[in-house]
Amino acid sequence: MRDLIERDSYVDIAHFNLGMIHEQLNDPEGALIEYSLVGPGNEFLAAQAQQAGILLAQKRPDDARQHLVDARADQPDYAVQLYMLEVESLAASQYSDLAWQTARQSLQQFPGDLNLLYSRAMLAEQRNDLGQMERDLRQIIKAEPDNAMALNALGYTLADRTTRYAEAQTLIERAYRLKPTDPAILDSLGWIYYRTGNLPDAEKYLQQALQAMPDAEIAAHLGEVLWMQGKRSEAREIWRQALERQPDSTILRSTMQRLIGSENP
After folding, report:
1. At what angle do helices 79-92 and 96-109 cross, to 10 degrees?
2. H-type helices in 110-215, by residue range?
3. Which of these, 6, 23, 33, 156, has the minimum number of CB atoms within 10 Å of its CB?
4. Sign of torsion over alpha carbons 124, 130, 135, 136
5. Three-state SS across 51-71?
6. 111-131 pLDDT per residue, tens
7. Is 264 a residue whose pLDDT tops 60?
């Protein structure tokens, strides 16, 4: 890596990889220095994300935020992406209030930006502010009626968190027509069919979703559908395999506890 830098060849890639090496060597300060030397280009956003992640892991949210403020000032062409990175990083590190402040600030600077609206919508859902989430997603859908991601996000939340099943199904089926192989949309489709009592179709689409993307949440959903059809050994096997892949999944564990607990009260 050092030789590449000395020869002024693939400099950004070299600094980024050196940052990763310093992290593996448990040298976060060295990693921060290397990531800070990555300029605009393919590795820039990843380097900013790594720096923010290190600072947040050190319980330094103010430093992480200031770093991203400085990055936006230095590279204004990346401002929207850096705002999204800040919101997502803060939220993932349990700084929900700071993430919310950043989301609101970003839309004051870039009102109507669809990517920022989507970031705020996802954060609003995590904060149980379903009204704000729905307003943001419907604004996106109004601007882009074929935005499958927004259609699916709104449809899934309505299916999972409300009883507005008819609206949810309409939204999810629109998303499915646009992207029939997307595993997240297949999962949503299976889930709305489960919510409306169509267990065979729910199983069919959730099986497709899990095959396309072995994700713990999809496994939790599929296992629940199998369980409710009396296919309990199949459900347990799906959950067992998913736990091996993602042992820290809270949704998977809570689903198992709820259903297995109901079997043996």
Report:
1. 160
2. 114-126, 130-143, 148-161, 165-178, 183-195, 199-212
3. 6
4. positive
5. HHHHHHHCCCHHHHHHHHHHH
6. 999 999 999 999 999 999 999
7. no
Which tokens is 77 given? 């062409």
21-25, 71-75, 260-264, range with the lowest pLDDT:
260-264
For residue 102, what are its two tokens?
């950043």
CB atoms within 10 A of CB 187: 26
Q: Tell me the C-alpha distance between 128 and 185, whole Å.
A: 22
Q: Token digits for 256?
A: 């198992």
- Whether the CA torsion 103, 106, 108, 111 is positive or negative: it is negative
List, in order, residues 6 or more apart from 136 with CB less than 8 Å away. 117, 118, 120, 121, 124
Cα separation of 129 and 159, whole Å? 16
Q: How far apart are CA 246 and CA 244, in angstroms?
A: 6
pLDDT(265) > 50? no
pTM for the predicted model, two decimal places: 0.89
Q: For the CA atoms of 135, 136, 137, 140, what is the dihedral angle to 10 degrees? A: 120
